[in-house]
């Protein structure tokens, strides 16, 4: 019973609320950087509620079930990941062996659902977007997993998030070591790509392929995708905070630190996305398999040397 | 590999105007393009022939909202070529100032859009904010932010007040530091280099063969600028440089436009410094029969007007050739073999303006019948009759 509560309350509601809030912060800061006023506080929520009330069009000739299921699969996996992360953070003893690997797998599923939806909609632009998303996933997963390996090595070869947190509570956050810093930098850039924000918004690229994968989505399908993206805006930074910066704690001054950690990660993402143009897909593959992988490998070697 | 058709248009977030480009794509490589234009035809040339010489200036000012000075400028020069008449010095300077102000705002608009197409929305918003200052300047000088209505055959309609000049110069000076910063941010950005260098290269030979104009040609090393080659207005009386770069890629087109903004600021300030006194209008009374041409350097390249008069107060033929008409075909030379993600920025790099370009439209003769305006009115009346009968309205 308690897990259903975790699932609904923490996994869905709290994640969605914080995600929507983060999306508002992102939009507001972006607007202020660009000399605009920016949206009111409830705008991300209003967008989604409005979309839920709109008609859902299904393109002719598309694979209907796949087209409609894809956003739900993506959302479900995000809820599951955030539930796992919350349980780990609130009650580290409840975690199970290998949940780090489970989280890594589930974090790929939103991208997979986007690829599914894009191909299912039978639109040339959506297919192009989906194939780009596929290349994007292939390129950033390698350095991302290498960066996670640093955590595993540093915390004594454990695959339990709970033990990683416990290790950090005793020995200080992993980011205080050289290998931790390098791994965090790699992970933040991979996170930018996972969230498909500029400079890695290639699958959507509205001025190139007019929305790409999401071009055929309307109504509730689009609403679920938007909600999924907003929730990822909380889940991914939260994951990085657990893995590298010692997790969130809810007692006294630590709550403030937790909020600061999260806000600074979101702010960093916003800054990156506002000071860069979009790159090309071949450049992304070169970037992630070249410099990023090399930095990640250096971090792994440093971690093995105990730095 | 299978070929896919990727449409750009007729309505696309990239474009402000309806145009249709059919890109044939193999994987992510563009192998062929097919351009369909004609969605924006408004019959302006015909409209201009039904108006008097003075009224035509206002009609053709509305050909395009961005280069709304270049068309009247070229048109008035064509009319003055028929008579022929020399425009007063002060009018020449005022015309130059207005034309250069327009060039600044047009280039800034392009720079913002280019940023937007690359996904760099911060540049988009910043340049458009800078552009506001220039529009304010134009409002002080002419009374309008766009469509300035300053031109008339023989001179300008409105004088520049001497008390406005310091305000305007101060306003123009105030944008220079931000512009410098923006120039550094755009020209030195490594990611912009990665996205635009070596992309969509228009070789010098192709630029000459396709008769490319304006910044598109100057980026390919063709030193072609009406302001230098056949000076008009006050361009031969003030000091300025023609910006020419040699690589012909998107980045060079960007550099040419950004540097031209600084040249335009220089020209405007020089013009204000040397602004002579005197009349602003030559007071043309009659236009004799004859024909005249006027060509000027619009922000996008050479804008060419041809006017024929039969001695009445209306032009009997008015032909407009906008720079995009010559620049658009270079898209085919530049885009084939490039990535689909670069196709849009390569198109944007020529700064296309379709409403300027579309002077004619082609009817599809495969149809059974081509309806004229009269036929359509007749059809409409018949249908209304049927409907009225159905609804019982008398």
From TrEMBL, chain A:
The chain crosses the membrane at residues 6-25, 67-88, 100-121, 142-161, 173-191, 231-248, 254-272, 284-305. Its main location: membrane. The keyword Methyltransferase does not apply. One of its GO terms (cellular component) is plasma membrane. It is a multi-pass membrane protein. Coiled coil: none annotated. It holds the Pfam family NADHdh. The keyword Transmembrane applies. PANTHER family: FORMATE HYDROGENLYASE SUBUNIT 4 (PTHR43359), FORMATE HYDROGENLYASE SUBUNIT 4-RELATED (PTHR43359:SF1). This is NADH dehydrogenase.
UniProtKB/TrEMBL annotation, chain B:
Ni(2+) binds at residues 64, 67, 353. Gene3D superfamilies: Cytochrome-c3 Hydrogenase, chain B. Keywords: Iron, Magnesium, Metal-binding, Nickel, Oxidoreductase, Ubiquinone. PROSITE patterns: NI_HGENASE_L_1. Fe cation binds at residues 67, 356. Residues 118-283, 286-359 form the NADH-quinone oxidoreductase subunit D domain. Its cofactor is Ni(2+); Fe cation. InterPro entries: ComplexI_49kDa-like (IPR052197), NADH_Q_OxRdtase_suD (IPR001135), Ni-dep_hyd_lsu (IPR001501), Ni-dep_hyd_lsu_Ni_BS (IPR018194), NiFe-Hase_large (IPR029014). GO terms for molecular function: ferredoxin hydrogenase activity; NAD binding; nickel cation binding; oxidoreductase activity, acting on NAD(P)H; quinone binding. It holds the Pfam family Complex1_49kDa. Mg(2+) binds at residues 45, 320. PANTHER family: FORMATE HYDROGENLYASE SUBUNIT 5-RELATED (PTHR43485:SF1), HYDROGENASE-4 COMPONENT G (PTHR43485). This is NADH:ubiquinone oxidoreductase.
